[in-house]
Specification:
The chain is an alpha+beta fold.
């Protein structure tokens, strides 16, 4: 049976495409939906110096998009030129393109929009007696009435390309996308007012906010007061790069990345470098797959960023992406590092609820109401048969068991056992990571056994704390061996002691590793008796050769056996039982995409987080008041102590007002 051959297609001559078809092809890149038209027209209005922009929509933007501004306007003899392809006033040569600071510059948006809709351009310059309107289909120019500025009307979008119109969603969905497009512009320009009308009804309006406080007020208007209340300011300078804005607190993380806004020289961008840098900063303070919320505004020399990457101008390319990544990461890390407990000292308190902790000694005994005497109601201390927290046993606390001499050395130095400090004076001994009285009988919710029979027995007197105003207050009890209860000026603080101590140990381990002498911190590795070989791609081989030093810091030794084969000769000690080939492939893939130092630091932090989790105090360990207060003081001084290494909160504040509401006091 003879095989059937596909006939060769008929040859077509090479010819130039008509201008209208060229514009319609370009519209496929620039005009995706009504929101794309809104973005381009608002860009032009802002470039024209507008201080007020009004958007009017019908049918979600499919039937009408009208953008009105009070900018400089367009000269009558330039109206027809404005609708031609690649016609613009923004640039004139290559130098202008390489240092462009305007929102638009490609000169193809109006021509592309005109090719798939019915467009009318109405404009008036200052000093002109009248405005002029241009019909995009016929090219006719006629006098019209309008104040100084420009109006662009786009009717029946995609009428000439019905197939494109079938891909549009419902009117409400398209309206939401149009509002989002304007919202992105509004965040970056608090000095410009915006109004959005749909079907004759005002749906959004953001007024002008001039001055230094304008940005924060615009953020509150657009993203809500809650975002500003649950975020912290960001300001960072690194050479020619400046990063400012607000970063959402880890507690305010969202399930979707819908509150992530990044701007480069006023332009909203979706850049992988910026997004990865921001995510890296939140890496060890977010729980699970939560997404951070932030609004970052970057100012950079325009010659160091290429905005001519994508027709929609939403993507950029940095000349030094590593510097940008590090700047974004460090800006957010520095903002998130300060413990939020420090803000409690400045928080307002009701005069009636003032606890007057400042400059007062530590409590020496339980208050009278807590001494199990309430006249006439015959409350007694619980006897042996009553419920009580489980008694502390030394076996309840498990010392860390981590492989590797370096890991154990770090942990020994962290805990500072007394035998290592013998012969030193009290001033010379390093401060312990946990208070020394770790095995004393607890001062918990139950008094010591020998005084339990006395209904008015006082608690054992703890060592007095230094005088001052402690943001996290003073410990008063331990609950079920898990939580520490503390009172401060605002009310009650509940602390998860394991999560809090885990963060303290983790941050101290990081500081010790970063302060290591020599060429740099390394993760201990274990050689493999038989090297694991695997077939590698050219990219993997090149990465293994160029990033050999980074691999060594990660505890990996990967060397090429041939042009297509790699051998894994050593792996990190703590991962010796894992799949060496899979580990090597994943590390090489990440090194090829991200900066080597970022990958090394992330891997080191993951190992340190595991060590800290094993090294932190366990639940059900009964603590004395000294130990509890020692933990609270360390939390106030430790960076990122508001979350544990896994992103869980370490403490919660309940104000006196919250407590009064629970018991309906004052009602």
């Amino acid at each position: 049976m003879s095989s059937q051959q596909t006939p060769a297609p008929a040859r077509r001559p090479i010819r130039e495409l008509p201008d209208e078809l060229i514009s319609q092809i370009a519209a496929g890149e620039v005009v995706e939906r009504p929101a794309s038209v809104v973005r381009e027209l608002v860009d032009n209005a802002m470039d024209a110096g507008a201080r007020g922009i009004t958007l009017r929509l019908m049918g979600g933007g499919t039937r009408l998009i009208s953008v009105e501004d009070d900018g400089g306007g367009i000269a009558p003899d330039e109206l027809a030129t404005a609708l031609k392809r690649h016609a613009t006033s923004k640039i004139g040569n290559l130098d202008d393109l390489e240092s462009v600071m305007t929102m638009g510059f490609r000169g193809e948006a109006l021509a592309a929009i005109n090719s798939v809709s019915e467009l009318t351009l109405l404009s008036r310059m200052d000093g002109q007696p009248t405005a002029f309107a241009l019909d995009g289909r016929t090219g006719e120019i006629r006098p019209a009435a309008r104040a100084v500025g420009t109006t662009v009307e786009v009717k029946e979008l995609f009428f000439s390309t019905p197939a494109r119109r079938k891909f549009l969603k419902s009117d409400s969905t398209e309206l939401a996308h149009c509002i989002e497009a304007v919202r992105r512009h509004a965040l970056a320009r608090p000095d410009v007012g915006f109004a959005i009308w749909h079907e004759g009804k005002l749906v959004e309006q953001w007024r002008v906010h001039p001055g230094a406080a304008g940005l924060e007020q615009r953020l509150a208007d657009v993203l809500g007061e809650e975002f500003v209340a649950q975020s912290i300011p960001v300001e960072y300078h690194a050479g020619p790069l400046k990063v400012m804005g607000r970063a959402g607190l880890p507690d305010a993380a969202r399930s979707r990345p819908d509150h992530q806004f990044a701007y480069v020289n006023g332009r909203f961008v979706r850049d992988k470098v910026v997004m990865h840098g921001a995510r890296s900063a939140y890496e060890d303070v977010l729980h699970g797959h939560k997404q951070p919320a932030y609004a970052l505004f970057m100012q950079i020399d325009p010659t160091l960023v290429d905005v001519n990457v994508h027709p929609t101008k939403i993507e950029v390319r940095f000349r030094d992406s590593r510097a940008v990544h590090q700047a974004v990461r460090h800006a957010l890390e520095n903002a998130l590092a300060a413990p939020r407990s420090q803000n409690l000292s400045d928080a307002p308190t009701d005069a009636a609820n003032e606890l007057t902790l400042k400059n007062s000694p530590a409590p020496k005994a339980l208050p009278e109401s807590a001494a199990w005497t309430q006249g006439g109601m015959a409350f007694e201390r619980p006897g042996p048969s009553s419920f009580s927290a489980p008694a502390y046993k030394p076996a309840d606390f498990v010392r860390p068991r981590v492989d590797g001499d370096r890991a154990m050395a770090d942990l020994k130095a962290l805990w500072n056992p007394p035998e290592h400090n013998e012969g030193l004076s009290a001033q010379e001994r390093p401060a312990p990571a946990w208070p020394k009285a770790a095995h004393q009988p607890p001062a918990s919710a139950v008094a010591p056994t020998e005084t339990r029979d006395s209904p008015t027995a006082a608690w054992p007197e703890p060592a007095p704390l230094p005088e001052g105003d402690w943001p996290l207050g003073r410990a008063i009890a331990q609950l079920h061996g898990v939580y520490i209860l503390s009172e401060n000026r605002q009310g009650l603080v509940v602390v998860d002691m394991h999560a809090a101590h885990e963060r303290i140990v983790y941050e101290r381990l990081k500081n010790q590793l970063n302060a290591a002498d020599g060429e740099g911190p390394h993760i201990t590795s274990q050689p493999l008796l038989i090297p694991a070989t695997f077939a590698a791609t050219p990219s993997e081989v090149a990465t293994a050769e160029t990033c050999a030093e980074a691999l060594e810091q990660l505890g990996l030794e990967i060397s090429p056996l041939s042009a297509k084969t790699l051998a894994v000769r050593a792996v990190p000690t703590s991962l010796a039982q894992g799949d060496a080939v899979e580990l090597a492939r994943s590390v090489l893939a990440e090194l090829s995409q991200h900066d080597a130092s970022t990958v090394v630091q992330r891997a080191q932090n993951e190992i340190l987080a595991t060590m800290a989790c094993h090294g932190a105090v366990r639940a059900n360990r009964r603590l004395t008041l000294d130990e509890m207060n020692g933990l609270l003081r360390q939390m106030e001084e430790t960076e990122r102590s508001d979350q544990c290494n896994h992103g869980r909160p370490t403490w919660r504040q309940m104000s006196m007002r919250d407590l009064d509401a629970l018991f309906l006091r004052g009602r």
